[in-house]
Every structure is written in C-alpha cells, then in structure tokens.
Amino acid sequence: MSSIHLFLKPSISHAATNLRRSIKLQNGGRVIACATVDLRAPDSTAAAAAESKAVMEAEARVLVGTYARAPVVISMGKGCKVYDPEGKEYLDMTSGIAVNALGHGDPDWVRAVTEQANLLTHVSNVFYSIPQVELAKRLIACSFADRVFFSNSGTEANEAAIKFARKFQKFSHPDMKYPPTEFISFSNSFHGRTMGALALTSKEHYRTPFEPVMPGVTFLEYGNVQAAEELIRCGKIAAVFVEPIQGEGGIYSATKEFLQALRKACDDAGSLLVFDEVQCGLGRTGYLWAHESYGVFPDIMTLAKPLAGGLPIGAALVTEKVAAAINFGDHGSTFAGGPLICNAGIAVLDKISNPGFLASVSKKGKYFKEILMQKLGGNLHVREVRGMGLIIGIELNVSASPLVDACRDSGLLILTAGKGNVVRLVPPLVVSGQELDHAAEILLECLPVLDESNSS
User: Fold this and answer.
1) Which coarse location class applies to the principal site listed for this UniProt protein (predicted)?
2) Contacts of 210 (CB under 8 A, 6+ apart)
3) List of residues 6+ apart from 149 with CB closer than 8 A
4) N or C, which end of the chain has less CB nearby within 10 Å?
5) pTM above 0.70, yes or no
6) Range of the domain at 378
C-alpha cells in the first residue's frame, strides 16, 4: 500500500477527510499539493505506524544496503515541512541534502513539471529539445560560461569535467607526447562516488574499498596557497578541482587569496580551474554562484543538486576554450538534459536568479547565523557556527549524531558533515524567519543530549 493510499483510505477521520478534499489532484489523482493540517486521527495512528514499519522492513529485504537511513518514512511534504504516514510533522532543514531549494510542492515548479509531462518527457540526445536549449541559454546568460553539458547528477558533472580537462590538454598540446593528465584536489573535499569523482574525494573510507581508483590525483591542504602554486607550476596538472565552500567536508569556506592564487597559477601553467558548486551553488550562499563573492571565475563549474528542484540533473558549465576541445562522441548521456527535467530547471533558475530572492537568502542566512550563535554559542560543546547564506555548519567537540537523533524526535530534520562532528543546516531557500526561529529553538532544547551522551 502506498503512502497516498494511506492518506485517502476510508478509515481516515473527518479531519483527514477535510485534508483529502483540500488536496489538489491532477492526472488521475496524483497528489501535487496539500494543506498543512493534522493528517491522522488517533484511530489510524496504529495502522500508519504499521505501514512505516512495513516500509522499513521491506527496504531491508529489497534494496542494496548502501544507506544507513534515519528511522523515518517520509510520505509527503509541503513548503519546508514533511510528514510521515502517522501524520507527524517535521521541519525540514535538510532540503534533500540541499536539493529542494524551493521546498516541497512549489506551485510554479509543479506547473512546469506537469505541463511538460503532458507534452514530452524524454527523447534522448539524438534529437533537439526546446527546454534543454532554453535552460542552457539561461545558465550561460547568468554565468561566466559559454557552453553547457548536461548530466544526471553532481558526480556525473564532475566526471564530465575530468574528461573535458584531459581532452583540453591533449587538444592544447598536439605535439606533446605526454600532455598534463594529473589533478589536484583538497582536504575535506567531496566530489562524488563514481570512480573518477571518487578519486578526487579526500576521505579515504570512501575510496579505500574500491581501489585502485583513477591515478594521478594529489590532495593538498585546503587553503594552502604555497603548496598549490608549487605543484601547479610543475606542468603536469590538467585541472584543479575545488569547492568554494565545502559542504560534505564540514562547511569550510575558501579565502579570496586562495582562489585568486589558484586562478593565477592555473593561468600561468595552462591548467584548468574547476569549481565544484554542486552543493554551494545556485543561490545557497545568497549569491547565484558561490564564487561570485570572491570575484574569481573558473574554466569549468559543476552544478547539480538544486537545479531541477528535486529531479535528477547535473551540469558542467565551460568556457569556449574548453568547449572547442570537445568533439561529437567524446561524451554523452541517454537521459541527461531531458525536456521534463530541463523545464523544471527553468522554473527553479528563474526564481532563484531573481535579485530579490537572492537578497532574501542572504538576509535570512545572516539572521539564522546570528540567532544560532546567540542561542548555542555559549554551550561548551559548540566550537563554531560558520557558513554563508543558508549553508551553515555548527562544529561540535563531540559527535553530532545524538543531537541529530534528538532533533528528529522533536520534529526537526538536520544533517551531519565533516568528521561527523558538524551539524549541517541547508534548509529550503524559501524558509521563513519563523521557521528559522523554530529550528534554533529545537536545537537549543536538544543540546543537553550531548552532555548525556558524552558522560555515558
């Protein structure tokens, strides 16, 4: 039985029946929006709990065990709230790991998806499609880039960047027997889980089970200008991969000096500079692109998470000099840049790129950081509150897991980062000030669990 069946079955109380009447239905009864009211009557709670348990037990039987999931079944969402089958409400400060930038069920996004689904969903890249071209035009118009390559995820975008960098070096050095093929990445970096992107990811426990991964990657200390300049100068580096703000790594921000030094060193040596903005890009920092705040621009930028508002997409944005090295057949994807996904991307990008929207993200981010420092800063377990816009990290001197669990029990969904001691807060960019206040209050109320956990 699906979660939608649960919400619509006859045993639901009068209150839930009213909810059912308030749900907007299209295309044969598919739920696309709902009101935020009590979802279940007491007599249906047991049935819903049984449904959640059944889902978790079935997952253990039918899916490969790659995820250590939180013990919650999410059955629907609206705005910055999500609900389990029992009707419990959670304030979502994860936004699907920085994906649902417009929250859940944004009406413009829903309209873009449903209208395009009625027209054309997939044709492959054997043919042209209008939404793909339109989204690419928009991305170029609001960025440094001249060309776009679409993929299905952030790790695929980084795989494309790896291939493009290698091909660019061969193209640029046609008479060189051994053109530059190596890469630089940095401590605390995360670039993906496919074999090339995995080789660029610093955490050893991600790489070790799958070695040998792609050779030729050197990891340097994030922010170490001298080490980077010396290695780039050797002439063997095809590209430098760097996140302007590291998400998975622990919400660490690069300095302007560091990115400027990378830019100059790459220019001098003929290496490419790749900015991975899969998590920190597209409005998350209060700027459309995180690198805008530094005034430093890359040769390639990789995007993904929020671009289609919850549907799978990635993109590698490149300059003309990089694009000139790429020929038909050098790279491709069956599903990438499909009309349904790209029409959703247009709706998201049009909203996020609005200057007023970006200003609101910046304002809310500053406010959230301030109240977190006020409420939590005096706690002996809180080392630092850092971040920019609505990508914020709370570094602890103990594991963050007990706090994550306690917050979830209190109706707040948050993430960890770094070495497991950083609370990562990446709410939908449409989050309200009241919701930020509520999140800070729950965090404050749950902090004592760190004392209990530490003492035990």
Assistant:
1) mitochondrion
2) 195, 198
3) 157, 160, 164, 315, 316, 318, 331
4) C
5) yes
6) 37-105+356-455
